[in-house]
């Protein structure tokens, strides 16, 4: 069933921004601290049996100088420097295997896939631990880790890793540093959206069902995971709800959207109970760069699936020719 406001209302839905005091200063300080560590990007060639690609195991220094893993794939036949798609991952999974990321190299672009620290699963393996602890008790999952202070919050580390992934791609000799596109679905969409506000000079962004956007509304209208983790936490941590929401405001996609300059393709689905469509529409309406929106009326969190990928291919082709 449709899970949110009627489509006519969604087309004009533009809620107030949840911007906390000192938002820009918080992120400037966070990224300055991260850049105090040498990026130390390493690309180790692998023989994966993918004869038409060159494949590399990537490591670079993310938040706190912690080593972050990834994959880098580049078409053997293409002459560089190439455009590059930096790919971010959905919630609860890792970087998988190189053969899981063939779309963009097959289209002729370089691809850097960033692993998500501390996330993995039996069918979505990852290789990056999260060595930083967190100070408050939380419910299972990542969404409540360090939730009582912006400096401690898990997503401060993950968003910083995502910025450093773009810097890693830009530093590769066969990548055109002015033609970087960030991409992701759900949690990956949250990261891509955040990058449009944190990283200047991006060529484009593919923002599919962005999580961590218009968070205060999302936690009130869905119990589905991962937002359900917040509801379960708030049910027990009754005295900490306002403090936690203030922390979350530092990571809300709406605050990055208004700072964006890159052209973006958004997607949302009207039956999505994981990332409610009003939150995606809110990000789209606040987005300050050039933008397009694909609305999938009878789909859920998968949005347009393979049809969305086709739309993304067309969008990126339009950026680069």
Automatic annotation (TrEMBL):
Residues 2-316 form the Acetyl xylan esterase domain. It comes from the Bacteria. InterPro entries: AB_hydrolase_fold, AXE1_dom, CE7. Gene3D superfamilies: alpha/beta hydrolase. Signal peptide: none annotated. Residues 116-141 are annotated as: Disordered. It holds the Pfam family AXE1. This is Cephalosporin-C deacetylase. The gene is axeA.
């Amino acid at each position: 069933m449709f899970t949110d406001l009627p489509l006519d209302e969604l087309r004009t839905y533009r809620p107030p921004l949840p911007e906390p005091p000192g938002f820009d200063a918080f992120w400037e300080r966070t990224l300055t601290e991260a850049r105090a560590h040498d990026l130390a990007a390493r690309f180790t060639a692998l023989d994966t049996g993918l004869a038409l690609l060159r494949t590399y195991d990537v490591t670079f220094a993310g938040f706190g100088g912690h080593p972050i893993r990834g994959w880098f794939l580049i078409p053997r036949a293409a002459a560089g420097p190439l455009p590059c798609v930096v790919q971010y991952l959905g919630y609860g999974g890792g970087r998988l295997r190189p053969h899981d990321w063939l779309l963009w190299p097959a289209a002729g672009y370089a691809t850097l896939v960033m692993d998500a620290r501390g996330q993995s699963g039996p069918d979505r393996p990852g290789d990056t631990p999260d060595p930083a602890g967190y100070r408050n008790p939380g419910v299972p999952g990542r969404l409540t880790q360090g939730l009582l202070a912006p400096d401690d919050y898990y997503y401060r580390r993950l968003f910083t890793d995502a910025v450093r992934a773009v810097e890693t791609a830009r530093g590769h000799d066969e990548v055109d540093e002015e033609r970087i596109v960030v991409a992701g679905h759900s949690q990956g969409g949250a990261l891509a959206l955040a990058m449009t506000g944190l990283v200047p000079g991006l060529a484009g962004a593919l923002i599919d069902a962005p999580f961590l956007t218009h968070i205060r509304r999302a936690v009130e209208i869905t119990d589905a995971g991962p937002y359900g983790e917040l509801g379960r936490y708030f049910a027990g941590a009754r005295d900490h709800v306002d403090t936690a929401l203030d922390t979350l405001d530092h990571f809300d996609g709406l605050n990055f959207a208004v700072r964006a300059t890159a052209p973006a393709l958004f997607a949302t689905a009207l039956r999505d109970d994981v990332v409610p469509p009003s939150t995606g529409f809110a990000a789209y309406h606040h987005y300050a760069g050039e933008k397009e929106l694909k609305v999938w009326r009878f789909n859920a969190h998968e949005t347009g699936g393979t049809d969305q990928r086709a739309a993304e291919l067309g969008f990126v082709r339009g950026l680069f020719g």
